[in-house]
Amino acid sequence: MQYSLVLFGAALVHAANAEHSNHAHRHERRVVDTTVEWVYTTVTRYVTAGEDVPAAASQYHQAPSAVSTPVDTTAEVAASSVPTTTSSSASAEKAILASSVYSTSTSSSSEAVPTSYAAPTTSTSSAEQAPSAYSSATTTTSTQTSASGITKSSLTPRGKKAGLSGYVGCQEKEAFADLAPYISWYSDYTATTPDSQGVQGIPMLWGGDGSTCADTQARLAAYNSLVATNTVPEIMFGFYEPDCNCPDSSEMTTGEAASDWDSLIAPLAKEGTVLGSPSMCKQKDEDFLTPFKSAISTEWDVTSVHINKPDLDGVKAVVEYYWNTYQKPIWVSEFACVNDTPSWSPCTDQTQVNSLINDAVAYFQSNEHVVAFGPSNGNGLGNVWPLTDSAGKLTTSGQTYLNAIQSFFPVPTNIPAPVDDGGAKHLEESDISSVQLPSTSGEQVDLSTLPGLNIVFLYPRTAAPGETVPDEWNSIPGARGCTPQACSFRDASDDILSTGVEKIFGVSTQSTAYQQELRERTRLPYHLLSDERLELVKALKLPIMEWEGKTLIKRMALAVQDGKVVHVWYPVFPPDRNAGDVLQWLKTR
């Protein structure tokens, strides 16, 4: 298959190399309008899918051009068996979850939060926070103040790891607006990436004087202009995959890269700029950074990592390699679903892509060495992976990423707190009635017959992707925060079970199908029980609330020992601290 590739000179086309893949080329036709003065550069590449290439060819495949226009995914998505959820409206969880960590209000509620409520000191739902080893701000050499405050000791922007590797102009698209409340950074692969919609632009110098790629000098000129204005960026990455060839990588020798690093990048460190390493296209097969590190006078602070793997095992292997080899915090500046061995082949199955996104996000969030991560959204990744379509809207993959990162957000401090109305007082030391509840496991569960100690948390309802929740919901005391509550039990599940608890269950009056979607989307390790017929509500006389003609259970948690309630948490506030409170009781009872 052949196409001609026409790129504007300032489009800054680049790519990654896949591990253990045959070198392949192909023609594509892309027009990227990023400048007023249009300078055309024609690049010819070839690929024959599934064929071996001559032995003299490089074993690494040039991966996607990171600067691109959004691709049209209509045909392949339509063929997928996975339903699309690319509504242009904000996700329901966007209304439920705040876009900042215990700070900025998005609620329309006029009720004040009790002054006694503060950000939890032992919250179990803080996976999105930078690890303590890198987040302490007690010492810093930064000479400037900004909203994000990236320093050598606080590398995660705004305390949110999630970001986006996009393309020039991506911040003007609808998809970016959907993601913006839940990401802290984005890159368009230039030295002057602008901040947009509360998201910090992360700059990079794509290549130095040692790079012979056609657009290197234009990129370098933009970088030098930035430095000439005495602008001190908080962070600067350089260079883009110097271990692979032009035009999609910056192609530099270790000596050239080291010389350019010391003359161009390293001086910024004296001004307090955090330095990000060159990224590698060869993933854990790279042999570039070790000699580069030995040759430079000023080391990098955070390692930029590109990951193109088909599953979580591959993702973990790359992260572990860079941590074990360089012992520096890791910024996953690109990740994508790619079958990278024996040859480069972007994932074409939506289910596989969704799994990779959900698994990788959960892994990055929980890994103490990963301080930031973002999916690649460039050319060359097929029609299923790209997060945005040709209209700049979220694709199914984009919605999957949005859902995945939403689930890690804590509840803000400005939601109205519920009051103890005495509705659960009768449950203490009561026997659980025998009621069969359908489980997301496909079985029927009777809480009264469960042996040992079990934890059961109950919640009103969770919102589905694409569902818009009215502002009135946010103003109801105790209504908002069901997904964060469920995720808090997810994050604390191992610790809770280690205390001798047999099982954890979540209960709501929503249908099992509704609950199954939540469980799969947020990767809950426990099962949810449906009381859609209100049998448990009536048998235990549970405190309830009415919403749009539906009966919902007020938020609470129960410790059930051999069919008897031995402890009640009611009311529960804030929702995302529920699991932490339960764990504290388990450890001290």
UniProtKB/TrEMBL annotation:
<protein>
    <recommendedName>
        <fullName>Thioredoxin domain-containing protein</fullName>
    </recommendedName>
</protein>
<dbReference type="Pfam" id="PF08534">
    <property type="entry name" value="Redoxin"/>
</dbReference>
<dbReference type="GO" id="GO:0009277">
    <property type="term" value="C:fungal-type cell wall"/>
</dbReference>
<keyword id="KW-0732">Signal</keyword>
<dbReference type="Pfam" id="PF11790">
    <property type="entry name" value="Glyco_hydro_cc"/>
</dbReference>
<feature type="domain" description="Redoxin">
    <location>
        <begin position="434"/>
        <end position="583"/>
    </location>
</feature>
<feature type="region of interest" description="Disordered">
    <location>
        <begin position="106"/>
        <end position="155"/>
    </location>
</feature>
<dbReference type="InterPro" id="IPR036249">
    <property type="entry name" value="Thioredoxin-like_sf"/>
</dbReference>
<feature type="domain" description="Asl1-like glycosyl hydrolase catalytic">
    <location>
        <begin position="169"/>
        <end position="401"/>
    </location>
</feature>
<feature type="compositionally biased region" description="Low complexity">
    <location>
        <begin position="106"/>
        <end position="148"/>
    </location>
</feature>
<dbReference type="GO" id="GO:0071966">
    <property type="term" value="P:fungal-type cell wall polysaccharide metabolic process"/>
</dbReference>
<dbReference type="InterPro" id="IPR024655">
    <property type="entry name" value="Asl1_glyco_hydro_catalytic"/>
</dbReference>
<dbReference type="GO" id="GO:0016491">
    <property type="term" value="F:oxidoreductase activity"/>
</dbReference>
<feature type="signal peptide">
    <location>
        <begin position="1"/>
        <end position="18"/>
    </location>
</feature>
<dbReference type="InterPro" id="IPR013740">
    <property type="entry name" value="Redoxin"/>
</dbReference>
<dbReference type="InterPro" id="IPR053183">
    <property type="entry name" value="ASL1"/>
</dbReference>
<comment type="similarity">
    <text>Belongs to the peroxiredoxin family. Prx5 subfamily.</text>
</comment>
<dbReference type="InterPro" id="IPR017853">
    <property type="entry name" value="GH"/>
</dbReference>
